[in-house]
Design goal:
The complex is a heterodimer. Chain A has four helices and two strands. In chain A, 32% of the residues are buried. Chain A is mainly α. A two-stranded antiparallel ribbon of chain A has the order 1-2. Chain A starts with 8 loop residues before the first helix and ends in a 9-residue tail after the last helix. The longest helix of chain A is centred in the last third of the chain and has 23 residues, at 85-107. Chain B is of the alpha+beta class. Chain B has five domains: 1-73, no CATH class; 93-130 and 343-479, no CATH class; 147-326, no CATH class; 495-519 and 749-878, no CATH class; 539-730, no CATH class. Helix content of chain B is 52%, strand content 15%. In chain B, strand 2 (168-181) and strand 3 form a beta hairpin. In chain B, helix 5 (97-126) packs antiparallel against helix 11 (335-385) and helix 15 (484-520) packs across helix 25. Chain B is globular and about 105 Å long. Chain B starts with a helix and ends with a helix. Classes of the chains: A mainly alpha, B alpha+beta. The A-B interface holds A 2, 8-11, 24-26, 29, 39-53, 73-74, 76, 78-79 and B 20, 23-24, 26-28, 30-35, 38, 50-51, 53-59, 61-62, 69-74, 76, 79.
């Protein structure tokens, strides 16, 4: 089980992408790339290793496709992944931890701009 | 996603451990397909390469460091740099399409033919036999201890004795057999086996339905039970799970189905039906060798220990039954050796031959790249001057080589797939287990490995060479071909190509001569315009000899009336066919020969027309005639070898003898010799053996091969025969329908298989070598224009210039010829066992090969030489 208080950047991005709803492999790859503004471009092998780890930690699970998704894709049902309640909690905890760190950095005049 | 992309992805997925692959493999492939669907052209190629790389890396990490969280994808720059190099390489190649095509084509031929041969070696030799723990399986043969071990059949009581040996976990005996499946629409011949018990207990596995045969079934007049194969059960019994207990009509007798074999089990020889042998021990004792035996060694028992125990058994049997076992030994032969031992040398040799082709292809490509690298050195110098480090430069050059090799590899896999389809056309029996051959994951992995190896072989040398030179040295001007190191590399590569071509051509020449010799062998009979088929009358309905011989007599009479038929005759044990029966000869009036000094002869039962239909030459006396009947005196015609062995220096005519074998019928007082006939070879490689021709009316059996000779060009004989047989007995199928030409092709099939492949490889080698010579000499001429111009200006004539250029190719080629001839002379012995009446050092073949290659070299260099003679000294000197 990964230490949920310390998600790696890619894990965090995947969890964030899933926060908006269940999704599948290629869509996740594109979401991560967009969210990270191109800094993270996971290849398919890396992405599924991350998914495997998140599933082992009970943060992510396989889930039924959303209602608006087509039933099958190339003749087969597509595999969708979604956050578990535990995953949502872990994402929130991680976001709070990061926010605290950002706050700290701001207090030390490393960052400019308003606090949110 | 195309089939290639899918195959590559599947291959990359195989790197992952199975659990990971099972869980995510499909989804990962789907994701790659999504990404490919989103892209076109170069972007698509880059995404594919990235994905393959990612899948392989993830697989390796899961294998070796599953807990290590690696997520950052590649450092941002790497893939970009790679994509950039790939784009650059593609642009470079597109600028010179002829060069790219030549290199890719050469590599595709090399990789493709090597992969194709590897697929055969893998399917036939490397894959274990399809049984659990196949290393424990072994054939058991009986042999005469006074001569070398041969694969001799076993007798039922000897097999029974083997069961007491602790070193054998199980042993069963069987004979292959064909059954006529009746009771359906049309009678069909099905291959099967008669066994003494459960073959599954030896080979491993358990029945799919019901039970296997056991020793309780193997009784004389025992129950008529049958176990059917899984394929048979699906195709002919509709896959009905309630099939056990139903009956099957075989040879017009009802058999109860007691079980279905597991899927894929078809031992021996594609068997689909297994019935108990039911041999009566009273009628078939220790001297009755009718079975093949297969055993499973006890766990952790080495073959040598089992052999020791069996030797002990043979010794005790020799003491207990001196009459039959005094000089009998038993020999264990691993099943894998028995199944594929005969082609092992040949297939490894083919792999070696095709490896030669691959080396030639690589040498060719390396030469082309070397030539090109000279013109690239300016580019390299510019790039290094602009700050590209040696690693980046190596990367650039290897990317280009890798791209060429990858394209060549893809083409090669396509070629290999085509070749495997072509292998399906090889007649069954030529190479065992050929049906196992396929381009699968293992073969693709081999092709991939080969491609990487090839990239390193032909790409690394030019890359290192290019980078080693310092930028400053090159920026000044183009390379001179005079660089000695480069010139030497080129010469060595050319000599290698020519040398390998010599070896391959010599191999092809030897096989060609062997095939010629095989076809030229006088078999002792005329095979033109003869077509034949085999009939097997079911003993359930034909149990009297008069009925059997009457059927064949009436059949031959009707066949003789078919328009176009010139002669009809039948025999058991036809030349170029199967079916044997041997007996020990006892000549009347001579004392019984001492043990080990008996003479054997094969007995060929025939109808009166048989000598005529195949044109066998009668030397003395008469042939078998229609007046020789069951109730008349027993007669025989013997062949020359029989006379030489049994009546040296005597007149055999009128002498009486008897033989110790029969199909159940035989003249009571033996046979009187009424004629002598010329020898016939059973196959082109078999020496003539003693043979006795006896009347079918006196000896049986139910099965005969009917031969018909037609007038030249007559067709439809087989159809006419089929109609006549169906009219006479609708339940009788024709089997082994073939012309004698086809029978001959079958007999020479293995040699023709080797010839086709080695000949094809040699042709490839010659073409590649010719192209290589032409390319290199052309290049040299273009680089030496200035020097040639000077020579012409100083008064060198056209002939002189031409000789200068031709020598550029001829000198390394002659070195190559010398090395190749030496290699052929030294290594020729390895092919010796595959040749027929040709020695590996055949002077005709070797001199032909040398002449061919020298001519090829001169031809390949003449064209560039002609161009050299047209050099205008003024233009050449002004050029720089």
């Amino acid at each position: 089980m990964p230490d949920t208080s310390l998600l790696t950047p890619l894990e965090f991005h995947v969890v964030m992408a899933l926060r908006r709803g269940a999704s599948y492999g290629y869509a996740l790859m594109k979401d991560v790339e967009r969210q990270s503004r191109g800094r993270l471009t996971p290849d398919v092998g890396t992405l599924y290793r991350v998914l495997a780890r998140l599933m082992a930690g009970d943060l992510v699970e396989e889930c039924p496709p959303p209602a608006d998704a087509p039933d099958t894709h190339r003749g087969r049902p597509r595999k969708y992944y979604g956050l578990t309640p535990h995953g949502v909690g872990a994402a929130r905890a991680e976001a709070e931890r990061l926010a605290e760190l950002v706050e700290l950095a701001r207090d030390h005049d490393l960052l400019q701009g308003e606090t949110s | 996603m195309g089939p290639w992309e899918r195959a590559l992805i599947r291959l990359a997925l195989r790197v992952s451990p199975r659990p990971f692959r099972t869980r995510f493999g499909e989804a990962m492939a789907e994701t790659v397909a999504d990404g490919l669907g989103d892209r076109r052209g170069l972007g698509r190629l880059v995404f594919l390469v990235q994905s393959l790389f990612g899948l392989t890396r993830a697989g390796l990490r899961e294998q070796f460091a599953p807990t290590l969280p690696d997520d950052s994808s590649l450092p941002a720059g790497t893939m970009d740099a790679f994509a950039q190099e790939l784009r650059f390489a593609l642009r470079t190649l597109r600028r010179r399409p002829a060069f790219a095509l030549l290199v890719v084509g050469t590599l595709a031929l090399g990789i493709g033919s090597t992969t194709a041969v590897f697929s055969v070696v893998d399917g036939v030799l490397l894959r274990p036999l399809p049984f659990p723990e196949p290393d424990r399986l072994s054939m058991v043969w009986a042999y005469d201890t006074q001569s070398d071990p041969v694969r001799g059949s076993m007798s039922p009581p000897d097999v029974e004795s083997l069961r007491d040996i602790g070193a054998l976990a199980a042993v069963e005996a069987f004979s292959t057999s064909t059954f006529t499946l009746t009771g359906g629409d049309a009678p069909t011949r099905i291959s099967g086996a008669r066994t003494t018990g459960s073959l599954l207990s030896v080979m491993g596995g358990s029945p799919f339905l019901g039970r296997d045969l056991d020793h309780g079934d193997d009784l004389p007049d025992g129950p008529r039970v049958v176990v059917v194969g899984h394929g048979f059960w699906q195709d002919r019994l509709g896959g009905d799970r309630a099939v056990v207990g139903r009956t099957l009509e075989l040879d017009e007798e009802a058999y109860e189905i007691v079980g279905v074999m597991p899927p894929g089990f078809a031992y021996p020889d594609d068997a689909a039906l297994w019935v108990p042998a039911g041999v009566n021990p009273a009628g078939c004792g220790r001297g009755c060798h009718i079975f093949q035996a297969v055993a499973r060694l006890a766990e952790a028992t080495p073959l040598t220990r089992a052999q020791d125990e069996i030797d002990g058994l043979a010794a005790s049997l020799a003491a207990a039954y001196p009459g039959t076992n005094q000089f009998k030994g038993f020999d264990l032969e691993p099943l894998a050796d028995y199944e594929v031992g005969d082609v092992r040398t040949g297939l490894w040799l083919l792999l070696g031959a095709v490896g030669g082709v691959l080396l030639i292809a690589c040498a060719n490509v390396a030469n082309l790249l070397l030539v090109r690298s000279a013109s690239r050195s300016t580019e390299v110098a510019v790039r290094s001057a602009l700050g590209a480090g040696p690693r980046r430069m190596m990367g650039a050059i290897l990317t280009e080589s890798g791209l060429l090799a990858a394209l060549g590899g893809l083409g090669g896999v396509a070629l290999a797939m085509g070749a495997v389809q072509a292998f399906r056309l090889v007649p069954p029996g030529t190479v065992p287990r050929m049906e196992q051959v396929a381009v699968d994951g293992r073969v693709l992995a081999f092709a991939l490995g080969l491609t990487v190896l090839v990239t390193l072989l032909f790409g690394l040398a030019p890359a290192v060479g290019l980078v080693r030179r310092s930028a400053g040295q090159r920026l000044g001007g183009a390379a001179r071909p005079g660089d000695r190191r480069e010139a030497r590399s080129r010469a060595v590569l050319l000599a290698t190509e020519v040398g390998l071509s010599v070896v391959l051509l010599a191999g092809a020449g030897l096989f060609l001569r062997s095939l010629g010799a095989l076809n030229a062998v006088d078999l002792g009979f005329d095979r033109t315009e003869v077509v034949r088929f085999t009939l097997d009358l079911p003993s359930a309905r034909y149990d009297e000899l008069t009925e059997i011989s009457g059927f064949y007599r009436r059949l031959e009479e009707r066949l003789a009336e078919v328009p176009g038929v010139e002669a009809v005759g039948s025999t058991w044990d036809p030349p170029l066919g199967s079916g044997r029966i041997y007996g020990t000869v006892e000549v009347e009036g001579r004392p019984e020969p001492a043990p080990g000094e008996e003479t054997d002869a094969s007995i060929r039962s025939m109808t009166p027309g048989f000598f005529d239909v195949l044109g066998l030459r009668l030397i003395q006396g008469r042939g078998i005639e229609a007046t020789d009947q069951e109730n008349t005196e027993g007669v025989a015609v013997v062949n020359e070898t029989f006379v030489a062995q049994n009546f040296p220096g005597e007149d055999p005519m009128g002498r009486h003898f008897d033989v110790s074998a029969s199909f159940g019928w035989r003249p009571e007082d033996g046979f009187r010799i009424v004629g002598v006939v010329a020898d016939v070879r059973r196959t082109p490689t078999a020496e003539p053996a003693p043979a006795i021709y006896v009347p079918h009316t006196q000896f049986g059996p139910e099965r005969l091969t009917v031969h018909m000779r037609g007038r030249a060009g007559s067709t439809g004989l087989v159809d006419a025969a089929r109609a006549i047989v169906a009219e006479m007995d609708p339940n009788l199928p024709l089997s082994r329908v073939e012309t004698m030409g086809q029978a001959m092709a079958r007999a020479t099939g293995t040699t023709r298989f080797y010839l086709a492949l080695v000949g094809g490889f040699a042709a490839l080698a010659v073409v590649l070598t010719g192209v290589g010579l032409f390319g290199v000499v052309s290049y040299l001429v273009s680089r030496r224009t200035r020097e040639i111009g000077v020579r012409v200006a100083l008064g060198a004539g056209a002939a002189r210039v031409r000789a200068l250029v031709v020598a550029q190719g001829l000198v390394p080629a002659l070195w190559g010829v010398g090395i190749g001839v030496a290699a052929t002379l030294l290594g020729g012995r390895v092919v010796e066992s595959l040749l027929f009446e040709v020695r590996p050092r055949d002077p005709l073949v070797l001199s032909g090969v040398v002449a061919l290659l020298v001519t090829l070299t001169i031809l390949a260099t003449l064209l560039p030489a002609r161009r050299a003679t047209r050099v205008d000294p003024v233009v050449a000197l002004r050029a720089e």
